[in-house]
């Protein structure tokens, strides 16, 4: 038997650990039941932290933890999936190809930033979507010190006033002063198409976010979109042109393109529709999890978001259930009723809310301590010790925060 998992993000990692856990519980050897994790690198990118400085440090190796639980790592990118023949074609470095057959497949390929065809965006826009994107932005920011002092050099525009856009923008004043000098006067502007900042956060948290932006001097342009970018900056739908040497796109996510190879229904974000066990509807033998899946969290209409908080728990359920089918034991329907947000607000602290109604529980320095613990402890892989690693992936115990 072979279970193939595509993706080494939060969902893929916990899918592998959870499947290995159930295999261990059932007393089945790794030789009789192979679990293979496919990814270009055996590395977890700590994606929720890519708005921070030094993004090249925000990774964690998975080799030791995978070895500890007898999960095979397959280096390469999944190029194609044939769900009828149950085959995945993989392309590794220098074009080397490999074909893996599977008895069960878990698609945990993650998501990508949605980049619309706005003139100049591809040439002049930055992002913090993937590790390489964040590194490119960080290098660019450090290169600004060699530019002539000007309003353009010191102005950063963040397109998108959602969760990521706010964290990028509120971190930016301190990052720029660190690079350009304490006497620098950075100007940071958030552009948001909706009429209010943080449109998904609701009325309760919004005044706290707005106060933090004012404290940091972050400006907003609301109710307008981006029409074009060029070397000199950005033009808005209102006709305003903002001189800026740094435009960061942070508006919208889509499931990774690989999900399109599964012949199944998808939502507007490209996520595969799944049943409570995270099986892809109408495609036997295929599960989807994390940002690749549209999964119900509860019985009242809440669906998992594209976040590591949901991906972690979804991965544990997907791995358990795919393994359960192969081992002939009962599955466990995915549920994740608890939901929190912890929004970093740079030097203005942070904001912690609980529940889908976003009830504010902590603000300022208290929330910042929690955010730091989440970012530096909770979201990192478990230690590479077999019992601890397997225990961390129990779908009934994976933290709901």
UniProtKB/TrEMBL annotation:
Q: Which residues form the FAD/NAD(P)-binding domain?
A: 2-315
Q: Which InterPro entries match?
A: FAD/NAD-bd_sf, FAD/NAD-binding_dom, NDH-2
The entry lists its GO molecular-function terms as: oxidoreductase activity
Q: Which Pfam families match?
A: Pyr_redox_2
**Enzyme Commission number(s) from the entry:** 1.6.5.-
Signal sequence coordinates: none
Residue ranges crossing the lipid bilayer per the database entry: none
Keyword Ribosomal protein recorded? no
What is the enzyme's class at the highest EC level? oxidoreductase
Is Oxidoreductase one of the keywords UniProt gives this record?
Answer: yes
* Keywords for the protein's UniProt record, in alphabetical order: FAD, Flavoprotein, NAD, Oxidoreductase
PANTHER family tied to this protein: NADH DEHYDROGENASE, NADH DEHYDROGENASE-LIKE PROTEIN RV1812C
Query: Which protein family is named in the record?
Result: Belongs to the NADH dehydrogenase family.
The name this protein carries in UniProt is: NAD(P)/FAD-dependent oxidoreductase
Q: Which organism is it from?
A: Bradyrhizobium brasilense
**Upper taxonomic lineage:** Bacteria, Pseudomonadati, Pseudomonadota, Alphaproteobacteria, Hyphomicrobiales
């Amino acid at each position: 038997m072979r279970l193939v998992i595509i993706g080494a993000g939060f969902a893929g990692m916990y899918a592998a650990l959870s499947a290995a856990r159930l295999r261990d519980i059932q007393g089945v050897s790794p030789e009789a039941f192979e679990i293979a994790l496919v990814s270009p690198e055996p590395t977890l990118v700590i994606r929720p932290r890519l708005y921070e400085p030094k993004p090249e440090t925000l990774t964690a190796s998975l080799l030791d933890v995978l070895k500890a639980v007898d999960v095979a790592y397959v280096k390469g990118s999944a190029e194609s999936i044939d769900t009828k023949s149950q085959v995945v074609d993989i392309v590794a470095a220098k074009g080397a190809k490999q074909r893996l057959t599977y008895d069960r497949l878990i698609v945990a390929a993650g998501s990508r930033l949605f980049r619309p065809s706005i003139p100049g965006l591809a040439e002049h826009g930055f992002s913090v979507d993937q590790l390489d994107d964040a590194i490119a932005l960080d290098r660019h920011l450090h290169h600004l010190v060699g530019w002539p002092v000007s309003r353009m050099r010191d102005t950063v525009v963040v397109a998108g006033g959602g969760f990521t856009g706010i964290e990028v923008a509120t971190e930016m004043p301190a990052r720029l002063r660190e690079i350009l000098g304490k006497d620098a006067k950075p100007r940071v502007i958030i552009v948001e198409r909706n009429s209010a900042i943080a449109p998904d956060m609701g009325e309760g948290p919004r005044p706290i976010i707005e106060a933090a932006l004012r404290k940091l001097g972050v400006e907003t342009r609301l109710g307008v979109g981006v029409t074009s970018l060029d070397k000199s900056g950005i033009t808005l739908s209102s006709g305003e042109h903002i001189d800026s040497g740094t435009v960061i796109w942070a508006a919208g996510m889509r499931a990774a393109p690989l999900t399109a190879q599964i012949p199944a229904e998808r939502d507007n974000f490209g996520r595969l529709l799944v049943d409570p066990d995270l099986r892809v509807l109408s495609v036997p033998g295929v599960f989807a999890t994390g940002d690749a899946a549209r999964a119900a969290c509860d019985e009242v209409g809440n669906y998992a978001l594209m976040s590591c908080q949901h991906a972690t728990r979804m991965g544990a359920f997907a791995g358990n259930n795919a393994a359960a089918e192969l081992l002939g034991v009962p599955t466990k329907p995915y549920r994740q009723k608890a939901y929190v947000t912890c929004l970093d607000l740079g030097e203005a602290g942070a904001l912690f809310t609980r529940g889908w109604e976003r009830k504010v529980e902590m603000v300022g320095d208290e929330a910042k301590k929690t955010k730091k613990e989440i970012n530096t402890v909770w979201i990192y892989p478990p230690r590479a010790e077999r019992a601890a690693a397997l225990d961390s992936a129990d779908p009934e115990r994976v933290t709901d925060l």
